[in-house]
Protein: Sulfurtransferase
Organism: Terriglobus roseus
Amino acid sequence: MSALVSPQWVASRLSSPDLVIVDATMPPVGVVPKVDTHALYLQKHLPGAVFFDIDALSDHSSGLPHTIMSDEAFGAAMGELGIHDTATIVVYEQGDVFSAPRARWKLRAMGAKNVHLLDGGLKAWEAAGLPLESGPVVRERTKFHATLDKAAVKDYHQIRATLAAGEQVLDARSEGRFTGAHPEPRAGLSSGHMQGATSMPFPHLANGASMKSPEELRAIFEARGVDLQQPITTSCGSGVTAAVVALALEMAGAPKVTLYDGSWAEYASRAESVIVKDV
């Protein structure tokens, strides 16, 4: 299955009842006032697209920003949106690569087999002169049979075991947050990084709204000393952009990729965590 699909590929399938299009745009971090991405979705979106609210579709009982919901809760939420686990699902976002890979990762981790990312997102769709719609979209309720793939996700105890074993961990946060030179955006959290982790800022893996080519991605990972054939865990601030790194690894051919769902928001909040600063 190809991770990315073109606007033309999607446009040619708009009439298919099997196609589900999902806008998974999150507000950009640090922008004040907060961008209302749902309002922007209502103004214009791909034909028939539903809005996948990553903040809302998270486990709020965890005390962490964006951890994945239970099987039952996620399945029910997807059913309400009219997303079936056997559908051909295309996820996109309104701006540059940021949050859509997280929605794709969630859907796949919960059992959807045929989930793609629209290469270039809404920007590429508009540039191609393809049709847009406005207003809310209500799809017929369906069933999503959700079963979490436990090999796709790590918890706190598993990430500590991963670090102790010397396995590869790639951190999608900025270099400044990774080294400890810049503060974390979440109050009360120390910046810095996990001992043995490798910095892999997610914007380096994309050209704006499009992911870089598999060849370019392999070169980036090689330059950072990443062994694509060995197990790799991705992390970030809250589990969102770790999915960008996971997508890039998938495109580069890495066979064993896991995402640390709690990411730095969890790790840095635990007193027993070892935090390394390079400044």
In short: The mean pLDDT is 97.
